[in-house]
Predict the structure.
Amino acid sequence: MASVWPVRLEQDWNGTRVVLRPLRSRADKREFMTLREANAAWTRPWDSTSPKGPRIVSFGELVREQNQEARHGRMLPFAVEVDGRLGGQMHLFGISRGALLSGAAGYWISQRFAGRGITPCALAMLIDHAFGPCGLHRVEVNIRPDNARSLRVAAKLGLRDEGIRERYLHIDGAWHDHRSFAITAEETGGVSLVERLRATVS
């Protein structure tokens, strides 16, 4: 059986190599900081924030905290790598066991890689891992109604629209409504989401 964490997931997507892997506290620091700075204006409207105000953590602290959450089974924090270059992040967080067996996905991608199908591919990879080695039953994605790009990602993967959650997440300094999309293991029909996605674009 494949490992749950740490793990490296790889797919070829239209000639582009898409990889989900753990962030490395030393090797990725410079590239990550440069990427975040270059994409600050691009991601700011969708970045999660704290209602208690900003909390400044170093890159090393960020990686350590996320890895600790992963070791305790509460989170899967992936870097998105595109043809060997850091391109963003994709997380499965709020993982619940017991009767729920669920998690929520969140992500961001560099502007230079947007519009190439990389995000839907990476999210499909994450969900396949969640339903496979992780043994989860449900994955949800919560998207602001004005985030047209992310709404297209949910549509491409055929995620079920569960409606509006009012003032659901603190984003860009304020509470915002979100539309919830979800998929359960039964809804895949035993077919990986990556393969289902390939069939829709071939």
About this structure: The chain has a mean pLDDT of 96. Helices lie at 29-38, 40-43, 59-71, 118-131, 148-156, 193-201. The two ends are 30 Å apart (CA to CA). The chain is about 30% helix and 35% strand.
